[in-house]
Design brief:
There is one protein chain. The chain contains seven helices and eight strands. By secondary structure, it is α/β, with parallel strands linked by helices. The protein has a single domain, classed as Metal-dependent hydrolases (TIM Barrel), CATH 3.20.20. Helix 6 packs across helix 7. The mean pLDDT is about 95.
């Protein structure tokens, strides 16, 4: 029974958990499965070219599963036009290296959808840590964008209601930066969908195999 944690900031030593660890250009340990990207919070024009160079180098690693997290954030201080520019560059890297894209998005879902239309990527996109209402979720799924849910499922009733309505073929689960164990998130997902936990495990595995082709 292997649980897939699609996006985490911590390293798991448990044999029954497969995790994709989020890495930054400043990270040093790439010995386990990881994703790497430039987060909109940490875009620095002073280090940008070097950061992009490091991302490109690591994307060729066998342990690299995805580009990200990267994306758009309306409430961070980083200039939004700069965020857009860097996000587009990372979309292009996702395509060039045939890696799915793990996306951080805050109050910019329409921009994400518009970019998906404009750039018409072949690689899958995953919004991580999704915590919005079902109308936004269904709109993203309509545009073939996957959604990953984290610890918000344990306590956010609106999010629980959203999760219970969505097609399972576009869903992932994650721990992100929380200390919550991924098994607890699978447990609540099972309760919300009124199905056996093994069924949720199987569906996430199928989704994973479909987009990562591993």
């Amino acid at each position: 029974m292997q649980l897939i944690d699609i996006h985490t900031h911590t390293s798991s030593t448990q044999k029954d958990v497969f995790s994709i660890e989020n890495k930054y250009p400043s990270s040093t340990n790439f010995s386990k499965p990881f994703s790497i990207g430039i987060h909109p919070w940490y875009i620095s024009e002073n280090s940008l070219q070097n950061d992009l160079k490091i991302v490109k180098e690591q994307l060729s690693s066998q342990n690299c599963y995805a580009v990200g997290e990267c994306g758009l954030d309306r409430i961070t201080e980083t200039d939004f036009s700069l965020q857009l520019e860097i996000f587009k560059q990372q979309i292009q890297l996702s395509e060039k290296y045939s890696k799915p894209l793990i996306i951080h998005c805050v109050k910019a879902f329409q921009e994400i959808i518009q970019l998906k239309k404009e750039m018409n990527p072949k690689q899958p996109w995953i919004i991580h840590g999704f915590n919005r209402k079902d109308q936004i979720a269904l709109d993203l799924i309509r545009h073939q964008i996957f959604l990953s849910f984290g610890e918000g499922l344990l306590k956010n009733e609106r999010l629980q209601e959203t999760f219970s309505k969505l097609p399972l073929g576009f869903l992932f689960l994650e721990t992100d930066a929380s200390e919550e164990h991924i098994e607890n998130i699978y447990n609540i997902a099972s309760e919300l969908r009124k199905t056996e936990k093994q069924e949720i495990i199987n569906i996430v595995k199928q989704n994973f195999s479909r987009i990562f082709k591993r």
